[in-house]
Amino acid sequence: MALIELRDVEKVYRMDGVEVWALRGVSLRIDAGEFVAIMGPSGSGKSTCMNILGLLDRPTAGTYRLDGTDTSTLDDVALARLRNRRIGFVFQSFNLLPRTPAVENVELPMIYAGVADRRARALAALEQVGLRERAGHLPTQLSGGEQQRVAIARALVMRPAIILADEPTGNLDSATAEEIMGLLRDLAGGGMTIVLVTHEADIAAHARRLVQFRDGRIVRDAPLRGAPARGAGR
Length: 234
Fold this sequence. Notes:
Layout: E1 4-15, E2 18-30, E3 35-39, H1 46-53, E4 61-66, E5 69-70, H2 76-86, E6 87-91, H3 102-113, H4 118-128, H5 144-156, E7 162-166, H6 174-189, E8 193-197, H7 201-204, E9 209-214, E10 217-223
Parallel strand pairs: 3-8, 3-9, 6-7, 7-8
Antiparallel strand pairs: 1-2, 1-4, 4-5, 9-10
Helix pairs in contact: 3-4, 3-5, 4-5, 5-6
């Protein structure tokens, strides 16, 4: 069974009486343990696809099954619960609370879920990304790369099935971007399913599979040459 399965997904936005097609009959299967990069020019549909995968938006037509669950059958509360427990998000802008220490930023998804052992799990997630010793620091006391590591720890702390990374290196210099991609590559090597949206070919090259969008359709879906085998580390 696929972890992610889109079938004939369409997304139409209506603005001022005009229909704007963001996705046109998209079908996509991603199995557990895959590291997939999604690319495409502005307006190609890649961000809309990511929002649907992250349960932040619903298709106009077609089906999205997440780990076998038809998400169209769920109400907003059930979708929010599924999103919190099964999907970890990493964004370009980090989205950390500026006046909150790193460890408490990592705890946030567990507060929403009512997890009891929040501090121990948050510290373990920070250790996983090499930042346990910075747990008490505010985001303003951390470098951009460290802030993104905190964001990755926050994405990992609920032990999700999938990490969705939307332009995770967009605010980082090239050396720091390589460090963050190395961390994501290590997570993929350990069996984590990662879906990465990027407009940079050198960032996409870290993935094992490339899906390219244009005009709301998938125009290419192929393994990346030289990508490591599934389950292989750095």
